[in-house]
Specification:
Layout (H helix, E strand, L loop, with lengths): L1 E2 L2 E4 L4 E4 L12 H9 L9 H16 L11 H15 L5 E2 L9 E10 L3 E11 L4 E12 L7 H23 L5 E6 L2 H8 L6 H11 L5 E4 L7 H6 L3 H6 L1 H5 L44 E4 L24 H18 L11 H19 L1 H8 L5 H6 L2 E2 L5 E2 L11 H4 L2 E2 L5 H13 L5 H8 L3 E2 L3 H10 L2 H7 L2 H13 L4 H15 L1
Parallel strand pairs: 5-8, 8-9, 13-14
Antiparallel strand pairs: 1-2, 2-3, 3-4, 5-6, 6-7, 9-10, 11-12
Helix pairs in contact: 1-2, 2-3, 4-5, 4-6, 10-11, 15-16, 15-17, 16-17, 19-20
Amino acid sequence: MKVLGLEWNRETDTLAIQKVHLSSAQSVTKRFILSKIASVFDPLGIFAPVTLRGKLIIQTLWKKKIGWDQKVDGQDLIMWHEIQRDLSKISGHEIPRCIVSGGDNRNILLCFCDASTKAYATIVYMMQKGDLEQHIELMFSKARLAPTTNISIPRLELMAVLIGVRCLTFVQDQMKMQIDEVHLFTDSQCALKWIMSTKELPVFVKNRVKEIKEHKNIIFHYVKSNDNPADIASRGCSTEDLVKSYSWWHGPEWLLHDISKWPVLDRLSNTEDDETNKPKTIENDEKENNISENLSFSAFGAINDCFPTSVPFGINPMKYSSVTKLLRVTAYVRRFIGKMKKEKYSSQSLTSKEIQEAEDMWIKHVQHTNFSEVYEALIGKKKCNLQLQLGVFIDKNGLLRCKGRLENASLTESARNPLLLPRDDSFTVLIVEREHKRLFHSGVSQTLSQLRHRYWIPSGRATVRKVLRQCLVCRRVEGGRTKCLLWLLYLVQELPNPHHSVILDWTILDHYI
């Protein structure tokens, strides 16, 4: 019986992959190989190590620039015949449909991640732990090919951890049951150190670490390569070897022991977390075997980002009509947190220093959100466009400022080195509106001139003009054609000669209408 693309044996209550029809062809082409590989429907990734070999041969043909209808020969043809035999054997293996037992059990999700020079993969298990017994079953797996461009093994390991946390979230959402604990295992020290790092990381690493840190209920572990079942999925294997592999279907045997008895290290080894580690190949199964035990730690206990991109205190600036109100609310939240820490304040009302600190907090937030590449270039002592054009530098408070020809003038620091603000940010709009109202709704030039006493906005005139067009007070007072027409009607009524008034009336009105 077919159920959601799988074969369901109702008598044994097992599932199996539908049989793949691999008809022999006179000529094997890339089109033929791709069609047969795509016909294998394995949504849970149960046979990911087997299907990975098919993906690898397609990637190899692409690298060789083989045409769609060009015959495949030589070593590629021999490899395809081996893969074809493995794909035909997939449908002969059945897996139990029901892996969740009833009763009062603790449900624990276990995820293993690994990467090689060819692919990176993750595998998810469900552990059900009762009073008398416990068992572990394979739930879900995913394997992806490594990019054809040169990318280091530590970065591939980090990508494996990323799809691991994504798969854990997917499984939890689909299970719709209480999950007591979530554990993730990887055999890469670099990936774990990046997750725990408080330093500024490369853009590629930082973006992936940021998404990993959003999943705060996961406990990360270091595991030896020999005990990592995801190693099978990242390298590929035959159907026979996969069926006989106990670690693939149930995980390493030491998982059956009590969690408190899992070997744990107090800290990582002192190896540097750079990307110059020895790369691993499919033939070399020894990866970082200098560590003989597992490392268990929570990646979110003491992580403080050097460059915060989250909104201060979760406040949405779009909900405030003025920057003054926004800064006062932020200052009050800062004061509340300070009082919770037993800090004392001399005045009951907010001081100018507290307002200034709140403004600096928002400026730092919008700068790190919109000019992250500028920070990275300045810290890495690299060149960037804004640095060359505006002489951008980081001041003692961590804010971006611009240098100009007034550096030696007897002006305030803000006037000589104005703060850099993004043009399309909501906080910048509030700043422009504040200066516009402070100048009694002056025009674009006056508002821009006042802004540049402290801030520098790229394409500032266009930004100020855009904000002022939305000012309801200015639109109501300035008027337009209606105001001119009313003045002309008044002028016509005051003319002494009625005949001339009619001629003048219609002539001028026709001109303006």
